[in-house]
Amino acid sequence: MNIFRLTGDLSHLAAIIILLLKIWKTRSCAGISGKSQILFALVFTSRYLDLLTSFISLYNTTMKVIYIGCAYATVYLIYAKFKATYDGNHDTFRVEFLVVPVGGLAFLVNHDFSPLEILWTFSIYLESVAILPQLFMISKTGEAETITTHYLFFLGLYRALYLINWIWRFYFEGFFDMIAIVAGVVQTILYCDFFYLYVTKGEGRSQLSIPT
Amino acid sequence: HALQIPHDEL
Question: Which residues in chain A touch residue B10, judged by CB atoms under 8 angstroms apart?
């Protein structure tokens, strides 16, 4: 494991914890897309089914369990515990427009036509676009709380660091996973507009507006 | 034939 992979994982973990703590501390999930969080729970569930079939390392297993646990805890907070604060009227992205094409693509373009591998591929494709309901919600309301922008920053940074990790692994290990790389590039590109706003307008302000 | 290609990343 190289430093980019590790900091990528930690950045991902930071994003997940930041969101969970924000909701817990403020006892509100205003401005958070429950749909994106359901998609992330679906991503982790379909990807980490290999917890049941193969053991890679204690680190790997621990992180997977934490990611899955936090994803479902977040969904629980949004749709059950703090349901009254959930801004469903602005969370109107049609997720079937993501899940259905992504599911079809996973069937067509994969490394191996086996159930677990198709589910893994589905999770990789779905993760690349799972943030769209959240970005759509922010563009609809025209603003995001600072802590939400920190969440998005770390979530975007994680896949960008993975891209460097893949370049590293290609040169030093000959490792090359086309599906992960292409999806990772798409995922990172989706955050670019946000990164720009975060860096140029985010500092010193309490709220970030994304122009529609 | 393995159940799944091993994926060592998260």
Answer: 9, 12, 60, 63-64, 67
Report the C-alpha gap between A188 and A202 in whole angstroms.
19
Buried b (16+ CB within 10 A) or exposed e, A132-160: bbbbbbbeebeebbbbbbbbbbbbbbbbb
Q: Which tokens hold the place of A43? A: 């991503």
Cα gap A57→A200, rounded to integer Å: 40
Residue A168, Cβ density class (10 Å: 0-12 exposed, 13-18 middle, ≥19 buried): middle
Measured between CA atoms, how close is A112 to chain B, in angstroms? 8
pLDDT for residue B6: 85
Q: A208: which strand partners?
A: A144
SS3 label, residue A75: helix
User: What confidence tens digit (pLDDT) does each residue in A186-211 have?
Assistant: 999 999 999 999 998 765 555 666 66
CB contact under 8 A, A114 and B9: no
Inter-chain residue contact A9 with B1, CB threshold 8 Å: no
Cβ-proximal residues to B7 (8 Å cutoff; 6+ apart), any chain: A47, A50, A120
ipTM rounded to 2 decimals: 0.85
* Nearest Cα residue in chain B from A119: B4
| Residue A116 to residue B9, Cβ atoms within 8 A | no
pLDDT digit string, tens, across residues A48-78: 999 999 999 999 999 999 999 999 999 999 9
